[in-house]
Design a protein that fits this description.
- The structure is a homodimer.
- Chain A is α/β, with parallel strands linked by helices.
- The first copy, chain A, has 3 domains: 7-50, 434 Repressor (Amino-terminal Domain); 63-161 and 294-319, Rossmann fold (3-Layer(aba) Sandwich); 163-291, 3-Layer(aba) Sandwich (Rossmann fold), CATH 3.40.50.
- Helices cover 46% and strands 15% of the residues of chain A.
- Chain A has 13 helices and 12 strands.
- Chain A has helices at residues 7-14, 18-26, 33-46, 52-59, 75-90, 104-116, 131-139, 163-176, 193-208, 223-236, 248-260, 279-282, 294-309, and strands spanning 64-69, 94-99, 121-125, 144-147, 158-160, 182-187, 215-219, 242-245, 270-272, 289-291, 317-318, 322-324.
- In chain A, the strands form 3 sheets. Chain A has a 6-stranded parallel β-sheet with strand order 2-1-3-4-5-11, with helices on both faces. The first copy, chain A, has a 4-stranded parallel β-sheet with strand order 7-6-8-9, sandwiched between helices.
- The longest helix of chain A has 16 residues, at 75-90.
- At the A-B interface, helix 4, helix 5, strand 2, helix 6 and helix 11 of A face helix 4, helix 5, strand 2, helix 6 and helix 11 of B.
- Strand 2 of chain A pairs antiparallel with strand 2 (94-99) of chain B.
- The structure holds a DNA duplex.
DNA sequence: CCCGGTCTTGTAAGCGCTTACATCACGCAT
DNA sequence: ATGCGTGATGTAAGCGCTTACAAGACCGGG
């Protein structure tokens, strides 16, 4: 194994000092053309690549951003994270990922690890977490931004959308169409402010319309779980005409079970989703849902975080969502 | 901002040398109980956390694994990567991700960056790439493993499945059911050995059965693109009875277009996918496809890579796939 | 022809950590 | 008593890089 060449090797070969080589790489303009050419030739010849650890040690900058994601399996995060990563890559930063599996303790631990590794900034998902995490971030002065949720004036800036208002608008649309008995299949709400906000939004819409309270069943992020939740809901609210779901995956599962039970959608039962995954258009009938600007959000979060790393003040950013009215929601029959 | 405490701060507070503190942290057993207690107390009090860059600089180990993924948006990678990452995290390694967007040059660049950052090992997707990448890996002696494809005896070990054989088995099943005119919607094959292998597998199955050659249309990884590809295929092969697709997303797109054209599936046209994403069960009719053990593969790849980092010899691992016979494939009408 | 300014390059001091080696204290065999 | 092995701790040399500061080269103006 050929030992990796060091700055010194390059310097020797080019007949200059290590300082000059370093300058060629970092501030080319201060080095005179001829010298630079000689150095660059040596760099090429040796296949030199700077050692990041050494550089980070003195520069106190790792060019690394950390992200703690519940899980990458979830398509909801995958797209946004990809966009986030694209921006980072373009700015010569790298992404260090950790996943929490929706466990607050694991998340806190991951943040600690990321800080110890010298992450220049950290991306967090959602607002729900141990305040100690924010304290840690503050005392270590590691900038962070929260995405997938929005709250102005929180401990760290957020880039996201209003989960509650979006769901409220969707349910209000259902109410406008004449639905009176509405139920919801929600994702797990414990430690998940996004899921909770969606439930709250739906509740608020019903309350504002003076309709009976929302009946909620929680389900794991899986179509099978959603299908079973639909059974329980049908049991508890036999006259339900609209089932709103916390996300598209749950909606797809619920719709599938509805079909299996011989219930036509939207004829006998309307079903809605949230997120507007590709999935939403592929199921029959196409899902009425809420479109979330995942890509925009990921990019904006990256920009915000990079700005913060750069020492610039960062504002929270509220992104708009959009109702996607498709076929799974229609006026109730009766 | 409170400057992060260093080893020296801890040493001073505990009244010992930095060497002793370092030993307490790395080889606690060589330090006498009483001293260790004093040191640990100081560590706690100061909230000390070792500086990774400094440690990496001297230890020449970063406890970091790099992965170059075409894109995380693709559900196919998301699940496997998550499993990969879970194993890493359990072994106290972190994952540094880069994406190539299916561009070989970008991939090579990413590998270079990852090496410069001192990644202890690198995960690569698929076999297709500039041989220079393997050379680089070899000269820098950075272990790597390839996943999502399989080739024994390649430059680096692989953990994956046989794309060609799997597709061949699927098409053979179609042939068995009586299909004679078969066409394929493939993902882009340029620089993508997985896509190419799937085409080859389908071709081989037809040839073995003495049937007319496979007609292929390529499409980007999107349902709309697949739908358009179906149009072209129908144009080229009006009497086609089975359209096999390179993956489930393409299949879903093709099926959707078939419905829009008034073609019943599988009545007038059979359609198959590949990967068995959750999607496959949600579309109508449920997709006949090939199940790929993404999770197992991700985990196995992580174990193999970690073993290689540890200096152990690593064998390639071929994982089995499984035909998922569902409703979108049936015997042709005529 | 000398002086000071400008521009380029070299010198060397760390950054925080690990680790080979030196040192020291102790206790036991001789 | 002397010497030596043993185990605990300290000393100090880097790891590869950046960067303040010093040094030298060269220029034009007085």
């Amino acid at each position: 194994m050929a030992k990796t060449p060091t700055l010194e090797d390059v310097a020797t070969r080019a007949g200059v000092s290590t300082a000059t080589v370093s300058r060629c790489l970092n501030q080319p303009d201060v080095v005179v053309e001829e010298t630079r050419a000689r150095v660059m030739e040596a760099v090429e010849a040796l296949g030199y690549a700077p050692n990041f650890s050494a550089r980070a040690l003195v520069a106190k900058r790792t060019q690394t951003i950390g992200a703690v994601i519940p899980t990458m399996e979830n398509a909801i995060f995958a797209e946004g994270i990809q966009a986030f990563q694209d921006v980072l890559q373009a700015e010569r930063y790298m992404l260090l990922v950790a996943s929490s599996g929706y466990d607050p303790a694991a998340e806190a631990e991951a943040v600690r690890t990321l800080i110890a590794r010298g992450a220049d900034g950290i991306l967090l998902i959602g607002l729900d977490r141990d305040p100690a995490v924010y304290d840690l971030l503050a005392t270590q002065s590691v900038p962070a931004v929260v995405a997938w949720a929005f709250a102005s004036g929180g401990p760290v800036p957020s880039v996201g959308f209003d989960n509650a208002a979006s769901m409220r608008a969707l349910v209000a649309q259902g109410v406008r169409l004449g639905h009176k008995r509405v139920a919801m299949i929600s994702g797990r709400t414990e430690g998940n402010d996004r899921a909770r906000a969606r439930v709250e939004g739906a509740t608020a819409a019903l309350r504002a319309a003076g309709l009976p309270d929302l009946v909620v069943e929680e389900a794991d992020y899986a179509t099978g779980a959603a299908a079973d939740a639909l059974d329980r809901l049908l049991d508890r609210v036999p006259d339900v005409t609209l089932v709103v779901c916390g996300n598209d995956v749950l909606a797809a599962g619920a719709m599938q079970r509805a079909h299996a039970l011989g219930l036509s959608v939207p004829g006998q039962l309307s079903v809605t989703g949230f997120d507007d995954l590709g999935l939403a258009r592929l199921v029959q009938p196409a899902l009425t849902t809420v479109r979330v600007p995942h890509k925009t959000m990921g990019e904006a979060a990256a920009r915000a975080l990079l700005a913060a790393v750069d020492g610039q003040a960062t504002e929270s950013l509220l992104l708009p969502t959009e109702l996607c009215l498709r076929d799974s929601l229609a006026a109730p029959k009766s």
